[in-house]
């Protein structure tokens, strides 16, 4: 098949008249036009010019992402000898790299008359139902309809009596017709990642079936008739809701893999559990019967429900157990008898500090750190925790895990993902015997197996073409081996390298729980890079790279191993594990080149924004936003904020530190825990909100003129000092500068901006809200808060409990002075509620309800800082009763 460059202009008359390209295009009765930008138009032109030749085509491929695909479909039925037809979408991608569905949602009825058609691929299209013409294709042996929106299959689906391969993965199938059992020739059935809740008993009639994939559905049970599938070799049931499996599966004598991972199995028939090829990871086997949905009414025992409001930071658990719902979305289930006495649980959320939260390469943080105390208590029964996490809409081929900190290191827990209807979000769930620190992470899928003396086979669920074979005698003692795969798309690689001829396989990472090399070589199978086959392979361009665990250096080991090639795969042997990467390129210094590409694969393209509140320009919102989220973020903030265009795109790594510094006459007007000498520290996490709101001021007299300043963003931790020449030079070789955005403080108005400390007729009382243990709000803190409130004070006053008449009276008494209105409202409320234990929480809630999350966050930061200082003072005088281990852990946070 000639490439586009050989065909020249595929749409021009000259190209169609040229004998060489036309004959090349039609050689061997094959017409592969999905590689051309406008292949459908080329097909129609070819049909017009060379109709007799086109009608003899037996193998046809077209892209369904073209507008002409609809008119092209009506021509296809004239190809009476057609044996293979591929009409796939996914050839174009949106701005964030997601493959676009094809435009085809139906097929002409005449397509059912293609009596020789044996292979039909309709993947990545827009079908909501299977076209009726398909069940008329009596010769059809292979049917692929993956990545569509099918909700069901027709009742006459069993008419496809010659079908041997059927894939409907990644659809919305909710059920199967009974006629599915009539597919007597079917060998492979892939129904993974659908919405199947049950299976018909007739599925047990598929006597020829060797591989059945039902993973990623909503199955709570499977029919015992599956035990009749005596030809079955692989049965994939992972990532369902199975609570039991029939014992009849143990009678499948040809079965070599039974995958039951990530279900809800608490017990399993012993004859199945003893099978050497069964995979059970991610099931709560042996755990007490606790419902997976805290709001389910199917619990064997009724537990008390506790609903906590915002601002509450503790609750009490009794031996009777309870279910707890925090305002932030976190949920707990303490089963009956989890504690022997009443225990008070304290909880607190912490911002993730990269110096403490150590992420691995390609990890993505999806939540803040949740600390649960007391740490030292071990529960009599394990407690279930549900943690909400950030949306992972664009994360594919990954898995969600809850990670916990033991006081010394982080480790991953067995985790399952569930969907909560109220509120509509995904949550990660795990069970724990004691409390510590928890967070949610998205990581590369981890496949593992135990390798005994007899050997084993390990393959990747992300790319099943990647396999590791352990021969007999490879080890003396059984060891555990883990495999992770990082897919690298051709588009990403070409964008980074700017070299269309450089291609690479997925990255393979292998690890084991032993420091001893294997006794015999282990064989690894990697797929050849895209576009490369064993027939077209130029061995001089092939490089096998190996790296250390940190992937800091990549070494070309091609000459050190024996590389064998099949049509699709590369095979080689090793005795120790780490990273492996297969490249096909003309580059010479491939190690350094791969190091650069690997670094770029970890980076995110981001923009900085700096916006000022329309009602109060002294309030500035700073945010670091991934490139594909900039427009939605700006649209959401448009009504309340204004400011310059976002910065130019820069690249950052997950967890990277950076800081913002206000310059040219502008500084920060508050004491903040995250502020050092007027510089605000940030940590970039791609799926968390990297946003802070600060208040700025200027030493320049603004009564006569405005102040034009700027905010600059720098890579790295906040330094002790930023040399003046660096702020001027910006892009010098030793500068960490990322971006600079202008900030303007307008000229002060004659009225309303000057806020007297003591308004006419009103004196500020000396007071402290809160208490020493939880943190105070002092008079100085309230004055600073009052300076931020502005015109929102009436709404805040009403949410604090002031009556409408009281608000109107304040408005009238101080009608010419906005500052006095704010002070009178805030301090009169504070004076009345000073002794109330929940007054600070009420103030935070009122700010949130009034749309002033910025002030609520500032109050919370002040309280947290005060609480920290109180604990430090207690430790200094030796009154702290907590363990030194816990103290050091809190200090780390």
TrEMBL record:
GO cellular component terms?
Answer: cytoplasm
> In its keyword annotation, does this UniProt entry include Repeat?
yes
Q: Name one Pfam family in it.
A: Death
Catalytic machinery residues:
434, 436, 576, 578
Return the InterPro entries for the record.
DEATH-like_dom_sf (IPR011029), Death_dom (IPR000488), Leu-rich_rpt (IPR001611), Leu-rich_rpt_typical-subtyp (IPR003591), LRR_dom_sf (IPR032675), LRR_domain-containing (IPR050216), LRR_R13L4/SHOC2-like (IPR055414), Peptidase_S68_pidd (IPR019502)
Query: What UniProt keywords are attached to this protein's entry?
Result: Leucine-rich repeat, Repeat
Q: Where is the Death domain?
A: 778-863
Q: What is this protein called?
A: P53-induced death domain-containing protein 1
Q: Which organism is this entry from?
A: Podarcis lilfordi
